[in-house]
From TrEMBL:
<dbReference type="Pfam" id="PF00561">
    <property type="entry name" value="Abhydrolase_1"/>
</dbReference>
<dbReference type="GO" id="GO:0016787">
    <property type="term" value="F:hydrolase activity"/>
</dbReference>
<dbReference type="InterPro" id="IPR000073">
    <property type="entry name" value="AB_hydrolase_1"/>
</dbReference>
<protein>
    <submittedName>
        <fullName>Alpha/beta fold hydrolase</fullName>
    </submittedName>
</protein>
<feature type="domain" description="AB hydrolase-1">
    <location>
        <begin position="33"/>
        <end position="278"/>
    </location>
</feature>
<dbReference type="GO" id="GO:0016042">
    <property type="term" value="P:lipid catabolic process"/>
</dbReference>
<keyword id="KW-0378">Hydrolase</keyword>
<keyword id="KW-0442">Lipid degradation</keyword>
<keyword id="KW-0443">Lipid metabolism</keyword>
<dbReference type="InterPro" id="IPR029058">
    <property type="entry name" value="AB_hydrolase_fold"/>
</dbReference>
Length: 338
């Protein structure tokens, strides 16, 4: 697998980082590139790393896709061009950074594409929704996969509501050292798994790789945290004056929702809410976890069974967009349990 690193000036003082992953011997011509967008307090590291097996990126590359990961401002190795306050919200991420990295991937792709398939990881999916809401037709997006991504807070965990009960307090102080705190928390979670059960099920993750897993954690943006708190109270997300739930009615792109059965960060109803609003004629739902092996938020990316439960359905669904061209003209509501 070849890995190429790109940097992009977003025009607002940030150099964004992108990576292209491709295996020339497996690459299937005629497909669109697949770009992955990480979520809140998250960077792209975990998308190309798995503690005990094949990563999400590696699996898609093995299946013949050109895969991109993009760190937007405040994420991973994206850097400020000059000193300043690292504060940003949905508007900056969705309306500036996302189209910028999309255009860069389309320009640098080995496939000569006219559109891109987007994978939104947690809040990364929300960023995609916000962009599509503002650009219902001229988006150059071939399809969207949401992995535990919320649109409308039809359901939220009481602890999450408590932590974000005051938007003013939630974004009042800068939080630094999040990765260091996670390094201390993960070993404790191995001994007392219920402490982090909202986020992960330590019984189905190789917790011995904690030092690697925490590399995907970033410090939060105060402005974004405040906006999430307001969104949680209002249930509907408003970005730059536009109600995104309402705006998505005019958006018709193939849509897959992947969700965990015991996700305490983004409960199933919140992850599925996009299907009540988006105008997609092709949708699929992949439900991961059962009573015996419950899955939480992070398990969708790093659990021992993630390849079979998440990555394989993703690759299959993306490939079907080319195998059945007539599907774009018909309405189909599909469901899959994993």
């Amino acid at each position: 697998m070849h890995i190429d690193v790109f940097r992009l000036n977003n025009g607002q003082g940030w150099d964004l980082q992108l990576k292209r992953f491709v295996d020339p011997e497996r690459l299937v011509e005629g497909r669109r590139p697949v770009m992955m967008i990480p979520g809140y307090c998250m960077n792209t590291f975990i998308l190309s790393y798995h503690p005990g097996g094949t990563s999400m990126v590696s699996h898609l590359v093995d299946e013949g896709f050109e895969v991109w990961t993009a760190n937007l401002r405040g994420q991973g190795d994206s850097k400020r061009r000059w000193p300043g306050v690292e504060d940003h919200g949905f508007k900056e991420l969705a309306l500036i950074d996302l189209p910028a990295v999309r255009d860069k991937a389309l320009t640098e792709s080995l496939l000569s594409p006219d559109a891109i398939d987007l994978v939104g990881c947690s809040l990364g999916a929300t960023v995609i929704y916000a962009y599509l809401g503002h650009h219902p037709e001229d988006h150059q997006v071939g399809s969207v996969i949401s992995i535990g991504g919320p649109l409308r807070w039809n359901q939220s965990h009481p602890l999450v509501r408590l932590v974000l009960s005051s938007p003013t307090l939630a974004g009042a102080l800068p939080i630094k050292g999040t990765r260091r705190m996670a390094r201390l928390a993960l070993p404790v979670a191995k001994r007392f798994p219920k402490l982090l059960q909202l986020y992960l099920n330590s019984e189905i993750i190789d917790m011995s790789a904690a030092d690697e897993l925490i590399k995907t954690i970033d410090d939060p943006s105060r402005r974004l945290t405040r906006q999430i708190a307001h969104w949680l109270k209002a249930r509907d997300l408003v970005v730059d004056g536009l109600n995104i739930s309402q705006a998505l009615y005019d958006v018709d792109v193939p849509m897959m929702c992947v969700l965990a059965n015991q996700d305490g960060i983004v409960p199933p109803q919140a992850a599925l809410s996009v299907l009540d609003h988006i105008g997609s004629r092709q949708t699929r739902v992949v439900r991961v976890g059962d009573q015996r092996y419950p899955h939480a938020h992070a398990d969708l990316f790093i659990s021992r069974g993630a390849k079979e439960a998440v990555f394989e359905p993703m690759a299959q669904w993306l490939a079907e967009r080319y195998d059945d061209a007539s599907a774009t003209k018909s309405r189909g509501k599909e469901a899959m349990d994993a």
